[in-house]
């Protein structure tokens, strides 16, 4: 049975491409590939997309609504940033195509002048939250390589900050002296103890990090150096972002594993954060943009 969607939703990141055949807000089918932005030459975006969606296309032009790094300067074409405060989807940028069976629109990212910050891709998940909860007034935390803390009010992104916690974890665990100590073992209590330690004394983060290596050398290695590293970094991030989450309604959007860690860490402060499904938020945001294009 052939699939003929009303439109096609696309989440295109640096390392992978995900597509969904959509009937309104309902998913008819989904496909993915490893054809991320970093793997493609400038002329390779349309062929990579068609490789996944060709069988879904009919004679007319099917709208494709995309988000993510595909809209960066190194992507298919630049979808210019919107300035805060702003609604999170804004006006999509139309991409040049050769195949008359598709039109491709890419959602813009968001920028902030002071303090300088940018996001691209996360704004679509935020738009999904707003579409589902238009009265949401609080903070969205999107854990990842570059974790975002975003203040939302009146259906707008008011301001935000980014923490390089995920990238720092990768560098420290793979390229620093700590790589000799990190194993796959995990212990929740070790993680929570490290969060509590660093939130209490964030100025000691550098020495706390080296203690992971030193403890192993003097025979006092903790139950899980990996959990301690994550706890130190997330604890330092929470200490720095306290003005964002303190006393706020906090929603977490991201991978299940990372969101669970942030929820545990925030629980130490007495805050119960909600975890929202990342794919559902992405699709809700893309659907809102598609519906907006029809008006």
Automatic annotation (TrEMBL):
Its EC number is 2.7.1.58. One of its GO terms (molecular function) is 2-dehydro-3-deoxygalactonokinase activity. GO terms for biological process: D-galactonate catabolic process. InterPro entries: DGOK (IPR007729), DGOK_C (IPR042257), DGOK_N (IPR042258). It comes from the Bacteria. Gene3D superfamilies: 2-keto-3-deoxy-galactonokinase, C-terminal domain (3.30.420.310), 2-keto-3-deoxy-galactonokinase, substrate binding domain (3.30.420.300). Keywords: Kinase, Transferase. This is 2-dehydro-3-deoxygalactonokinase.
């Amino acid at each position: 049975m052939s699939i003929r969607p009303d439109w096609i939703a696309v989440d295109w990141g640096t390392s992978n491409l995900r597509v969904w055949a959509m009937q309104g807000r309902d998913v008819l089918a989904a496909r993915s590939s490893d054809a991320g932005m970093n793997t493609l030459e400038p002329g390779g975006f349309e062929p990579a997309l068609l490789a996944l969606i060709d069988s879904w296309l009919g004679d007319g032009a099917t709208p494709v609504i995309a988000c993510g790094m595909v809209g960066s300067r190194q992507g298919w074409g630049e979808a210019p940033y919107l300035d805060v405060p702003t609604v999170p989807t804004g006006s999509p940028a139309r991409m040049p195509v050769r195949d008359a069976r598709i039109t491709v629109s890419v959602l813009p990212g968001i920028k902030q002048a002071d303090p300088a910050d940018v996001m691209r891709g996360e704004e679509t998940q935020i738009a999904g939250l707003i579409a589902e909860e238009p009265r949401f007034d609080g903070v969205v935390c999107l854990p990842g390589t570059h974790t975002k803390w975003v203040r939302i009010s009146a259906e707008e992104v008011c301001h935000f900050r980014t923490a390089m916690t995920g990238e720092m974890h990768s560098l420290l665990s793979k390229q620093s002296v700590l790589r000799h100590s990190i194993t796959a073992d995990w212990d929740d209590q070790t993680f929570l103890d490290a969060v509590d330690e660093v939130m209490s004394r964030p100025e000691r983060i550098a020495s706390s990090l080296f203690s992971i290596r030193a403890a192993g050398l003097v025979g006092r290695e903790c139950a899980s150096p990996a959990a301690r590293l994550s706890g130190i970094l997330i604890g330092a991030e929470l200490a720095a972002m306290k003005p964002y989450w303190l006393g706020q309604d906090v929603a977490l959007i991201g991978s299940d594993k990372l969101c669970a860690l942030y929820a545990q860490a925030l629980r130490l402060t007495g805050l119960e954060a909600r975890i929202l499904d990342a794919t559902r938020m992405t699709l809700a945001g893309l659907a809102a943009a598609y519906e907006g294009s029809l008006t």
